[in-house]
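Q: Entry one of two.
A:
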Amino acid sequence: MTHAHINFQRLQQDIQELSAIGRDADRGIHRMAFSEGDLAGRRWFKERILAADLDFYEDGAANLHGRLDWDGSRPSVMMGSHLDTVPGGGPLDGALGVLVGLEVLRTVKESGITLRHPLEVVNFTDEEGRFGGLFGSQAMAGQLSPAQVHNARDLDGISLTEAMAAWGLDANAALFARRSKESIHAYLELHIEQGPVLDRGDISVGVVEAITGLFKWEIQLKGQTNHAGTTPMDMRNDTFQGLAEFASEIGRILEEHGSPHSRATIGRVELRPGAANTVPGHTTFSLDVRDTDPDTLKGLSDAFRRTLSAMARRRGLMFEFEVLSELPPQRCDPGLVQLLSEKADALGFAHLRLPSGAAHDAQIMSGIARTGMVFVPSLEGRSHSPAEWTNWEDIERGANLMLQAVLSLAAQDKETLR
């Protein structure tokens, strides 16, 4: 194992500088995809790439690449994540993985280490899904169609085509951002855990074994709007009572059809007409269900459909649902999981193998490359909020683990990973 170490003071400075871009009065960071904050963050990242004397490249999906020892013929060891945020997000979700990747490239360049494979760091466009998916990594993995690009819109009705055109970009060029499997030797991503497991266990490093899949539905229940005082309880077609019954079944469904990694959440509810003295005749709600096993996820989907249908039949309600998104679960490459674990042991870092309950660009990239992920703790499990943070010493450990894993991969041929 090489004795190289990342320049942690420089990484700290990058984190602090980037976290000031898009910060609002609420202390949250607003760098939603194709917003002014996102544009400023991307400009800053490009400047840092060029200042490090690395090659800069922007592909058709507006993914930003920093490259070291690039010749276009050898497959690269790629690191990546995203700089865009949710509204009012924190300073590390996504951004930390990009900045650690940049620091790894700078450290390797300054060390003068000879590479069998070139290195890349990528800022993927719109990982947070303003336009409905993980746009940048889906483009790179060849998972976009012209219809998907044309139809992509945000919650305000702004199209992806319009948002990119405002920056002088052609959204259809994303179809040319596809990379072949032969062009990527391996893909690694460092990310904050966004959950409490590592923090509560006082463990500095997590090695991700699997990334959750999910399905997200919008469900509408249709009954009969009526007077709250004059309609007897046994004569109501109350859609909120239907929702309450359905929600009470979540625990049973997970116990009977799920696994320890299963999650189900109703995060948004809208009652209409929404008056205190009116039986709600229309209820719309979301259902987000996740698991790391595809068969388990399918079983949960079937169980939730059956339960919804049975509840509606008993209560005289109509229902319909729209599938808002679906992502298949993915297992990380066993060879990379083993490599990351061995490097953590060699560095003396206590580590834990665990699943990811959130979706990541790594999930999409696994379709075209061997993929591995490193987690660092999130204090109190907080994420997607201004309270999101990771202790500096844990960031440093995660960054040095990435450096050692990347150096090992960059010296390998593909067969040694099998």
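Q: Entry two of two.
A:
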Amino acid sequence: MISTGSNAALAGRPEGLEQLRSLLDTALGALGDAALKRGGPVAAGGPEAAVAAVGEVLGGGRFLAEEPSAERVTELFEAYARWSVDLTHPSAVARMQCAPTAASAAAELLAASLNQSLHAWESGPFALELERRLIAEMASWVGFGPEAGGTLTPGGSISNLMGLLFSRDRALKDSGEVSATGLAGRAVRPRVLCSAAAHFSVARAAGFLGLGRSAVVKVPVDDRGRMLADEARRIVEGFAPDEVPVAIVATAGTTDHGSFDPLPELADLAAEFGIWLHVDAAYGIGALFSPTLAPLLDGLGRADSVAFDLHKFGWVPASSSVVVVRDRKHMECLDEQAVYLNPSDDEALGFTALLGTSLQTTRRSDALKMAATLLTVGREGMGAWVDACHAQARYAAGRIAAAEGLELVADPLLSTVIFRCAPTDGTPVDDESAWNAAVRRRLMTDGRALLARTKIAGPDGTPRVHLKLVFLNPMTTEDDIDALLADVSAAARGLAREAAAER
């Protein structure tokens, strides 16, 4: 008998299952206790208190302890739960980070305990087929047919990277297969068009793929962050003979305004010039479930590839991202024959894996938790939850517009609201951007609320710090929103008074 010096056990064995039941009770208890002790969306105390909490659990020891202890695991669970952000709290509105359904959380536990992988048939036969079926259905959501392909990824940044990988190999294939021969010596200058409001992962992906960040051409946007299709056309028509447009990257749901680029017009442009159209719908895919908001995604089915997340509008634990491609032949650059993983004779007899669909080899079964939420909530339920979050944003925007000391930037398009605190009661504020930033930090430190921040140009064109609410919790009520805004206003007034007293 192998001894570990502790009561550690492997999860799949009988003794491991018994230990898992006990630890699960401990974890659930920690979750319940944390909500009571936390009091808000995050524990109070700010960064110093969080650092101290980790130090208290570890003490002076190391993770790989000389004397392992199950009691220390209990302490770890309790501290982790207490210092985690409570995504079910109505004042946790900082990030595109959803609270998962109970079904998907249970699926996560099952997937972790069984630890299936998708790189070889014998590593997870049911998991493999489940992902294939899920990808096929997701491709149909966006309007792709039976020839479509795709894969699950660790996040929207990797999904965008893969979309640009496929577009790069297609655009530059005339001078040799890029994945085989590389980019060196090619007498062309690749270009990727995206809006000035596109996610930073587009430029980063261009760098990773050897195209270079300088290959990314930022197309001007309107006052809501939507790409101007006429400007995109002007740029394409003005390319020099050696400039090769690799892709147009459209955004469906920008991180600030939640804006949607004009997909039909961009699809027309891409088709006219033979350019790959990739749509980053990491956030905006939620509109697809809503009969009211679905028109925002008109033209999505004309894209060549689409990236979207279900760990934003989807209520699935991260990571739950997807990239789907209209024609799976463009995924051939990922083909790999490894004799120890997918030998051809095994493949011919149906023992097929997903090694040739992903950048990863060992890969977890994220499809299980996605399927658990989709089967539990259903399409109508998903639409109702998206509509609820949209309604919350509209309500919050109305309250902000009517409130003294708060200024709304624009009516929400999806579920984000951008606003700023403005001085009231004749109390002057020296630097309004620094003041708004400080309001956010004060709310976080006090454990009262978690808000995001961004920069929006003011009337004079100078970027100023603004605050942002992101609604992804369909259970949030109007009373909850009123309380949140009251906390924001109170923090703003308190900081203004403190600053005035110090003058």
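A: Comment on entry two: The CA atoms of residues 139 and 424 lie 51 Å apart. The two ends are 72 Å apart (CA to CA).
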